[in-house]
What we know:
- The chain is mainly β.
- It has 2 domains: 10-37 and 377-490, Jelly Rolls (Sandwich), CATH 2.60.120; 55-372, Methylamine Dehydrogenase, Chain H (7 Propeller).
- 39% of the residues are buried.
Amino acid sequence: MGFCYMAVKQSTFLFDVRGGINQHDKLHVIPDNQLRLAQNVEVRYGGLKKRAGYVKNPTTVMGTSRIGSLYWGRKTDAAKTAYLFGSEGTNVKYWDGSAWVALITGGTAGTRWGYTIARGNIFMTSVNDGFYMWDFISPPGISFVQLLYYEFVIAHVDRIWRVRERDNPSLSAITKVFTNYGAEHMWEIPSTEADQWITGIMKMHNQLHVFTKQDIIRVPGYGPSQWRRNLVDTQAGMWASRSLETFPDGFALYLGINDIYMYPGDIPTAVGRPHIQDILDDINMTYIENACAMKIADEYWLSYTSRSGGGTVNNRTIVINTSASPWAFNGPYTYGFEAATVRRDTTGEIAYFGSTSIGQVYQAKSGTSDDGAAIAIDVQTKSYMLNAVQRQELIDLAIFGEISEGSTVTVKYKIDFASSWTTLGVVGMSASGAHEGYRDDSTSTRTYIFHPIKFPDGTTGRFIQIQLTESSTNAISIHGIEIRHQDAAFRR
């Protein structure tokens, strides 16, 4: 007596449009087994979206040399006078709304400046060119007599703190109360080791926090008689001074020797590994001190020099969305910056960053191109097991998404850990082959697509990996990928 076995076609969802990027996990989360590369895309509810681009702002170039530092500051008076400050080459300039105006000239080429505003003045310091103050009114460039030169400056408890002296990087100088700005108090970390040189300083919870490459030190108190140094941590120091950003929820993020750390004012916690271990491993440690960050809304943007990207300047950027639960990691994005600042006023936020080659300032998260250049996405899944027991015949693959008219997504695959990609086809309203689509309305240029592509006859395997690439100045979203397959033994 015989029996009959009927083969059943199965579907595997790599991205599931029914419940976010993966219906079994919280929204906004890429599980560790989901993607191995998400270049130039953001994780969004329901899938992946091509990141926003950037535009020139101001359109007028600051100079011919790369941007060394940027700072958006508002005068603390009734008028709330605000300017965008920056350094380029040997100059410090500010944007007055129509042109870049020289503030300090004849400085040391390539020097990065530190800035802070207090009592209606902006204070500027550089490790090579000294300590300057401007009241937003007098002729620019009022300089103090220099005896020591410091890299960082911050206003705290009615004093100006200058930190990391040029010849003694463990030394700080604190000025007198705001009557004059001579040094009232000298403060030094008792070590001459390079790992104990000061790498950054910030205010949080009404206290000052000082970072070295090894330690974090908290300084409570409101005057010299109260100041004391509390050692918080000796294992999670900061290696990139410009990677430090504070958040309104009472924590800071910064780049350490082997991870990104969240610091709430006491014990720091590593947050990058294992989620973005491959990205962290790609940071070129020779240039780690060039890493630079900016905070846009609830996002932490960190730019770094990539080993795989080559070069000696920052050329990749990752974004951590701290409002997602748990946090979402986006990128890498294929551009970098070494100077950044964010303007915050009643009109909202504008994020500025500087070119790493010329004196051009850009506005981040604007438009669908990188200053007119196409944004190329590259999404690669990790290998998925279709069936542990039976070898599977691949029938077809369908893409769910939203794409602009004229754009196409190239789909490639690997079977059973193959060494190279095989092109399956292209997806898009202008692509050849069967497809279905619809628009929001008759005038919309964006099309929602369901586009099945057949695998070559006889394609079989147990594991599959998918790659999606697209390069244009158009927006695109990928909401889902479905693969239909059946047991190869019952192929007819």
